[in-house]
Design a protein that fits this description.
Helix content is about 35%, strand content about 15%. It has helices spanning about 20-25, 80, 90-100, 125-150, 165-170, 175-180, 200-205, 210-225, 235-240, 250-260, 320-330, 340-350, 365-370, 380-390, 395-405, and strands at about 45-50, 55-60, 65-70, 75, 110-115, 155-160, 185-190, 190-200, 245, 275-280, 290-300, 305-310, 335-340, 360-365. It is elongated, with a radius of gyration of 26 Å.
Length: about 425
């Protein structure tokens, strides 16, 4: 069903709760200047304790559903639909929060549910979001004061559902894709420092079952921030301690020889698994002009290497000769773990490798994730999965994005080691 952004109040309608005297004029902090001031369903109440340390902010409530009776008459169901987070998407979020907070380690986390926009406006415009943000800012300020008066000084954590929730908190983000899996720390909201964990909008979470586990991961990150148990990303220098970047053809050969012969625990080196990835200059490996810029592989936890090939900054050795060494590694028949390997196969086939003979394929992590969790488009990339399952190895791109935003630069941060790939 198409949705419409409100630019002016809609025609009058009948609603049992909205018609109550106390709600007819709303009388909110900024309602008089809001495009949705009249003629929209209103959700004034929050759900939770006054001293909450986790505030869950939905972008906007859903309009109340209607029951169509025999004869064509429709009536609203105001009771359940006017309670905070009691529509379908709201219940999904509450279920995720309840499930995560039921764990003993998060027993001291107390949630409070509210909305960035109090009225049931679909696709609210920025003026509506900014106007209604006074409600949310006032709530955060009152919550912080209540906690301080009661001797609770830990930082407030906000789980922001959707871009509108971020905008209402003063975070300048243009799209969900730009904010997914990000944490915004020390955001000043009316003088109160808060840490904000982003998750998808209520509409998105309510319509795609496959994203429930990613929602659980976002809630857990918020809970860990609230309990000061959040896993911080390791510094790049620490991660790369045992990484190898050969600078000569001899070093490339020695590296390949070492990996071919590597094993642990008396495992036959021929059966020792490695992971492999390519980096190219295109999303379309079958096109003319495709270049294999580099390959990366790992043979044990913390041990990895990257061999530059036809990379514009590689001038150490003949890339064609180094590529022959890469082929020798894959031809050794060691079991190989890929991520979206079909892309890599096409790259090698384009470079002349015989069809159907690109190493000993053991596993493909992207295919496995699709099987385990379907219907979570845009959450299958290496960047997303690393943040979800290996948070200590993630975060470099968020730091870079923050630096760029500080300089008002609009630059899209690409994923590590998967240039030329596009997962959906």
């Amino acid at each position: 069903m198409p949705t419409v952004t409100l630019t002016e109040p809609p025609e009058a309608f009948n609603c049992v709760l909205c018609a109550l005297p106390q709600w007819q004029e709303k009388a909110g902090l900024s309602c008089g200047t809001c495009p949705a001031f009249k003629g929209t369903h209103y959700h004034p109440h929050n759900d939770g304790v006054s001293g909450a340390n986790l505030i869950v902010v939905g972008d906007a409530p859903a309009p109340p559903p209607k029951l169509v009776l025999i004869g064509g008459t429709s009536i609203a169901r105001p009771k359940s639909s006017h309670e905070t987070f009691e529509d379908t998407a709201g219940r999904v979020v509450k279920t995720a929060v309840t499930r995560v907070l039921s764990r003993r380690e998060f027993g001291f986390v107390q949630p409070l549910y509210t909305y960035a926009v109090k009225c049931a406006v679909e696709n609210a415009n920025k003026k509506t979001v900014v106007t209604c943000s006074t409600y949310l800012r006032d709530l955060i300020h009152r919550t912080a004061n209540y906690r301080k008066e009661n001797g609770q000084f830990s930082k407030l954590i906000v789980l922001a559902c959707g871009v509108d929730a971020l905008v209402s908190l003063g975070v300048n983000i243009r799209s969900e894709e730009e904010a997914v899996n990000r944490i915004f720390e020390d955001v000043d909201v009316s003088g109160v420092p808060v840490s904000i964990v982003f998750t998808r909008s209520l509409k998105s979470l309510g319509s795609q079952d496959g994203k429930f586990n990613t929602l659980l991961a976002d809630v857990e990150r918020a809970a860990r921030l609230a309990t000061d148990t959040f896993i911080r990303p390791k510094p790049r220098e620490e991660i790369e301690q045992s990484f190898i970047y050969p600078k000569t053809l001899e070093e490339v050969r020695a590296l390949v020889d070492m990996v071919i012969g590597y094993s642990e625990d008396n495992v036959d080196p021929k059966n020792w698994k490695i992971s492999f990835d390519t980096e190219t200059n295109t999303l379309h490996p079958n096109w003319d002009g495709t270049k294999l810029l580099s390959v990366s592989f790992s043979w044990a936890p913390g041990k990895a290497a990257s061999i530059a090939l036809w990379h514009p900054q590689q001038n150490y050795y003949d890339p064609a000769a180094a590529y022959e060494e890469v082929k020798r590694l894959l031809a050794s028949r060691k079991p190989v773990i890929w991520f979206n390997g079909k892309y890599d196969y096409k790259v090698f086939w384009k470079l002349g490798w015989p069809l159907g003979d690109v190493g000993n394929v053991y596993w493909d992590a992207l295919l496995a994730e699709h099987v385990l969790e379907e219907d979570k488009k845009k959450y299958y990339s290496l960047k997303m999965l690393t943040k979800q399952f290996l948070p200590e190895l993630a975060g470099y791109e968020d730091k870079l994005q923050d630096m760029l935003e500080e300089n008002n630069e609009e630059v899209e941060v690409s994923e590590p080691s998967v240039v030329g790939k596009k997962q959906k």
